[in-house]
UniProtKB/TrEMBL annotation:
Gene Ontology CC: membrane
Protein name per its UniProtKB record: Multidrug resistance protein
Gene: yibH_2
Organism whose genome encodes this protein: Bordetella ansorpii
Renumbered residue ranges of the record's region Disordered: 1-56
InterPro entries: AaeA-lik-b-barrel, MdtA-like_BSH, MFP
Subcellular location as annotated: Membrane
Multidrug resistance protein MdtA-like barrel-sandwich hybrid domain: residues covered: 98-300
Domain p-hydroxybenzoic acid efflux pump subunit AaeA-like beta-barrel as annotated: residue spans: 305-391
């Protein structure tokens, strides 16, 4: 649409000599300027043709190349610094956790520990009512005394047998010899009476000689029997020696029972086997405890790290390698240690149900192998480091 400025001069040219007409032209042209869109567009297009858009310079490309170079440089530096390091976040603190239990049963008479309290080796933890065990000890001691008396008596009997039985054998043999001599005299007297003329002797003398002969023979038989009895003295001595051995075994048994009774009495007191912290206490004063029942756990101060490294990380790892240890619970705590040992088997191999890969459905899974790491420095001996804390060890391999 032509504007007023583009109209023919014959239609709109005012008289230059008329000031009022020129003022009206100016006032009438001013409100119509916002409608002149096409003219503005045309002017812009013309200006665009006269001033074409500038091409992007080389500055953005240089910035991009610089950023890439910085990233590559940082990656190279990081690789250079960590090329001899193996790290894992599958690691935890470990230590000795001793389950404390009594070896005798009874009612808890005295309880000396609290939860998470630190105790020293030999400290009394609890005491079971000892009265029943004191009675058993006294009974065992009495039985031991009786067995000791019987043993001493058996030894005396053996000594008597070793002295008396040989003397009885000698006495029996002497009596046998006397009986043999008396028999010989009786035989001679009887023979004389039989050879004497009947008119020079009497029947009474003959009967007396015959009676003496029979008595002498009986005496010989009795003496021989005594000799046979006395000849059994070695067996009797052996029997007395057997009694002594039997009494000795009974005495040993009584002593063992006394020792067991005293041991049971001493076991009524449960003491700490080492320094440590008492945890998981599940016994109260007055509770009845059974032998072997777990009462609490004693955690010793010794700590180490069990880190489960991937099998691909073990190629250059060896016992003795230095380790830097970071603990999630204590970010400011810097520990150092060394690799003590590498388990000869993956964790899954020693699990309750090892994986069976012969079924035909094999899927390769990266195995993890437990590595024991010992803490060398950085840990305050008085600081309690709970078990099972998450740890990030970094092993410097060679």
């Amino acid at each position: 649409m032509p504007t007023e400025s583009q109209r023919p001069a014959s239609d709109s040219r005012p008289d230059s000599s008329d000031p009022s007409a020129q003022a009206r032209k100016t006032s009438s042209a001013a409100p119509e300027r916002p409608k002149d869109d096409e003219g503005a567009g045309g002017d812009a297009g013309a200006e665009g043709r006269e001033n074409p858009p500038k091409r992007p310079g080389k500055k953005p490309l240089i910035i991009l190349i610089a950023v890439v170079l910085v990233i590559v440089l940082v990656a190279l530096v990081w690789w250079f610094l960590t090329r001899n390091q193996e790290s894992t976040d599958d690691a935890y603190t470990e230590g000795d956790a001793v389950s404390m239990a009594t070896q005798v049963g009874g009612y808890v008479q005295d309880l000396q520990v609290r939860d998470n309290a630190f105790v020293h080796k030999g400290d009394l933890l609890l005491r079971i009512d000892p009265r029943d065990y004191v009675t058993r000890r006294d009974t065992a001691r009495a039985q031991e005394g009786l067995a000791a008396a019987q043993y001493e008596q058996a030894k005396v009997q053996l000594a008597l047998a070793q002295t008396q039985y040989p003397a009885q054998l000698e006495q029996a043999r002497a009596q046998e010899m006397q009986a043999q001599a008396a028999l010989k005299r009786a035989q001679q007297s009887y023979q004389r009476q039989r050879r004497v003329d009947a008119r020079a002797t009497t029947q009474e003398s003959i009967d007396a000689a015959d009676a003496q002969l029979r008595d002498a023979r009986a005496a010989v038989q009795s003496a021989q029997a005594q000799v046979r009895i006395a000849s059994q003295s070695p067996l009797q001595i052996d029997q007395a020696r057997t009694v002594v051995e039997q009494r000795a075994r009974q005495l040993d048994q009584a002593r063992a029972q006394t020792a067991q009774a005293e041991l049971d009495l001493s076991r009524t007191e449960l003491r700490a086997p080492s320094d440590g912290w008492v945890t998981r206490r599940n016994v109260q004063l007055g509770s009845f405890v059974q032998p072997g029942s777990a009462l609490f756990t004693l955690v010793t101060p010794q700590r180490w790290i069990v880190a489960n490294f991937k099998e691909s990380q073990l190629g250059r790892m060896n016992p003795g390698d230095k380790v830097d240890i970071a603990i999630d619970a204590y970010p400011d705590l810097e520990l150092s240690g060394h690799v003590e040992s590498i388990q000869q088997g993956s964790g899954s191999r020693f699990s309750a149900f090892p994986a069976e890969n012969a079924t035909g459905n094999f899927v390769k899974i990266v195995q993890r192998v437990p590595v024991k790491i010992v803490i060398d420095s950085g840990l305050d001996p008085g600081q309690a480091l709970p078990l099972g804390l998450s740890v990030v060890p970094t092993v410097v391999v060679k």
